[in-house]
Amino acid sequence: MSRPDSQALLAPLAPWFDTNRRGLPWRAEDLDAPHPDPYTVLVSEAMLQQTQVATVIPYFERWMRRFPDAHALSEAEGDDIHKAWEGLGYYRRARLLRSAAQAVHERGWPGDLEGLLALPGLGPYTAAAVGSIAFQWPVAALDGNAFRVLARLLRIEGDPKLHAPGLRAWLSPALAAHGPSRITQAVMELGATICSPQPRCGSCPLEQGCQAKAAGLQSEIPPPAKRTAPKESEFWLLAIEHRGEFLVHPPGGKGLLAGLWRWPIQPLTEGAAEGTLPFGMEARAFPGWTQVYTHRRERVSPLHLQPMERPAPAGDQVWIPAARLQQLPMGKRDARLRELLKGPGERPLSLPPGLL
Ligand code: SF4
Predict the structure, then answer these.
(1) Cα 201 to Cα 183, 188, 191, 205, 216, distances in angstroms
(2) 210 CA distance to ligand 1 middle (Å)
(3) Is there a catalytic annotation at residue 241?
(4) Which of 173, 183, 261, 337 is the most exposed place for a label (fewest CB within 10 A)?
(5) What is the pLDDT confidence band of residue 112, given thresholds at 50, 70 and 90?
(6) What's the total number of domains in the chain?
(7) Residue 289: what pLDDT?
(8) Which of 200, 204, 208, 221 maximizes ligand 1 atoms within 8 Å of its Cβ, making it the mutation to test the pocket?
(9) Residue 356, domain member (yes or no)
(10) Cα of 152 to ligand 1 centre, how many Å?
(11) Does residue 147 carry a pLDDT above 60?
(12) What are the C-alpha distances in Å from 308 to residues 135, 183, 241, 247?
């Protein structure tokens, strides 16, 4: 089916964005010139993957004070970048961002989309976002918001991601005509603020040309993504302290929590020891919670244990002084127990069997 001309269809978007755009700390004032600091675009795009704008803003501002340019980031230690990223999740993004900064610092910014795609961590979306927003190249960056807007505008039923190559080619003339940075950000902004999953079509600058709106299908396009059931697990999360030191796992190189310090865990079994504490043991329990990841749900039972005898570290565990605890980069789950340690707990009703 032939599609309407993107340049004409998206023309109302340019003045709408110039008037309504949100003031975000990484946004350039002048949308017709290349961005004065492409590094800020790279940092913001890395942070915005999987994370809401409002959450990203304070992280971005702290990050830019700490690592103001590619050179500063390229020399940063692993613990420092993970600490600065602490709480944002998907920590691999921070490591890849540093690798990309190292490549840019050594060889300069690439001159085309293929060069950006060759940087660590830049997939088709991020490379095109940096290309269009930082360098004004007419390359289409399609994130979830953009796919939703375009699918509705053009009445694409089914998964719009299957149409990605055609949509990129369709969008390109509009980028060239109205400004790559302006239109790239405008499409995503429209998806974030107006053409959201429950769209506010009455406030939309594209209402007149929108095919889904004309057909009354805007609530059905795009269809909801199928989700697989998350894996469930439950365990004790253990802060084991002995004479001012805590037992922790140092950062591993792989997995969801790579680069982060972790507390030991022990599966929550039905055979948990109940009743009196072992001789000399101090123990506190804190309220449990469910830690939710994209594909995983963990039922966490946090404990603070202070045995009389110093237990031998298991596996890669190490003892670290309590004074260092706050400086260690930890994921949300482990940082939450670190915070709980500052408050009161309760006498535990049960303990991991044979722990100590
Ligand atoms: S008219 Fe409605 S469905 Fe169409 S682009 Fe605008 S907000 Fe989205």
Answers:
(1) 19, 16, 11, 8, 11
(2) 6
(3) no
(4) 173
(5) very high
(6) 2
(7) 96
(8) 204
(9) no
(10) 6
(11) yes
(12) 62, 64, 10, 14
Q: Is 9 in the pocket of ligand 1 (CB under 6 A)?
A: no
With beta carbons less than 8 A apart as the criterion, state whether 152 and 221 touch.
yes
State in Å: Cα 220 to ligand 1 middle: 12
Q: Do 257 and 164 fall within a single domain?
A: no
Please report, to the nearest 10 degrees, the dihedral formed by the alpha carbons of residues 81, 83, 88, 92 taken in order: 40
**CA 147 to each of CA 125, 162, 180, 196, 207: distance values in angstroms, whole numbers, following the listed order:** 11, 10, 17, 11, 17
Does residue 222 form part of some domain?
no
- 200 and 327 within one domain: no
CATH number at residue 290: 3.90.79.10
Which two three-digit tokens encode residue 216?
């009354």
226: in domain? no
Q: pLDDT digit string (tens) for 20-57?
A: 999 999 999 999 999 999 999 999 999 999 899 999 99
Stretch 105-112: mean pLDDT, rounded? 97
Same domain, 251 and 335: yes
Is residue 1, in this structure, part of any structural domain at all? no
For residue 105, the Cα-to-chain-centroid distance in whole angstroms is 24
